[in-house]
Amino acid sequence: MSFPADPYAPKTLNRTEAGAYLERIKLPVALLDSPPCLSLLSTLFLAHLEEIPKDTSPLHVPEDQWNGPSTPIKLGSAFTNMPLGAAALGRMVHENKGAFCFSINATFASFLRYFGFTVSELVGRSFKSLGNDPLTHPDGWKWGTLTHQLLVAGWPDSPDRYLVDGAWGPWNLAKPIKLTTDPAGEIIMGLNDFEAYRLTYEELPLSPNMARPIDNIPGYTLYRRIAPVGTPHVLPITATSPGYWSPLFHFHLISVGLADFMLYHHFSASHGHASFTAFWLLTRIIPGSGGARRSMMYAEKEGQGRRAKVYTTGGPEAQGSEEGRDVEWVEMETGPMKEYHEGIWI
């Protein structure tokens, strides 16, 4: 991709492309004439998460390798195969495949703009001790680099704006959540009684022993509530409610230009130390399941063999447990992987 002449020019799908996107996420094409509103945003967002998986496979398998004889899959062997930004439309919509955040969220943003939503494309800093309580865990407030794209959406006659993220993966918030500067933050339930999330306006939380930035501005932190297994969340959630808040990511409300996303994409997908090339992941919400998610995961670990684990997490059945269930195994070779994908993922 060449350097953009107008890096902040928004990409917007045309009517034909938006119609194809609706068909891909199994929604009626009649929605093409719907005005932007919270109900429409919620419908499009959930359907997107149910049908388009977060998928790192393009980083590991060149497209022509799928069509030849079955060969071993080597992690990080196809660095530049992941499309950047809205160029992922063909892969996601016409080929019925997935991608990762710098492809999925950029394309989802261009889809939302067709309906008249105003969408800001942002970059976030992921929490590196997921699921832990930063106030008590030895990791503390362990933050990574700016390697996650997310979106904030609004519309012309609405005073409110909402975080939507079409590519976080496991424990993804599947509802829009309102941005607020209220110190209490915005707290909402997820898709079942064992999911709750909070979006808080604050400076990047840091452990007491960490150096403070000299110059800093407040941003937003998205948290997931974690309670003992079998304990449903009940609003309002207060300091005495069971469980704790565990961060997912932190971001600043500053629109990011396409040229900058080119750099973030390179660091995550095609740099020699690219983080996403170290693992194989496909994951999406099971349609109509109340938040249950089917995932496929593989990372090279000594003594575990070369098989990807396929498992289900979340949903009301899990009652807050993060343990995988309905486990299957797939050999890390293109033949059995393609056969499994055609029956499950595409």
Structural notes for this entry:
Belongs to the arylamine N-acetyltransferase family. It comes from Mycena maculata. One of its GO terms (molecular function) is acetyltransferase activity. InterPro entries: Arylamine_N-AcTrfase, Arylamine_NAT_domain_sf, Papain-like_cys_pep_sf. The chain has 346 residues and is an alpha+beta fold. It has a single domain (15-344), classed as 2-Layer Sandwich (Arylamine N-acetyltransferase fold). 19% of the residues lie in helices and 24% in strands. The chain is built from six helices and 13 strands. It has helices spanning 15-24, 38-51, 89-94, 101-114, 258-269, 334-344, and strands spanning 54-55, 118-127, 143-154, 162-164, 177-178, 186-189, 196-202, 219-226, 244-251, 280-285, 293-298, 307-313, 325-331. An eight-stranded antiparallel beta sheet has the order 5-4-3-2-9-8-7-6. It has a five-stranded antiparallel beta sheet with strand order 1-10-11-12-13. The chain starts with 14 loop residues before the first helix and ends with a helix. The model has no long low-confidence stretch (mean pLDDT 94).
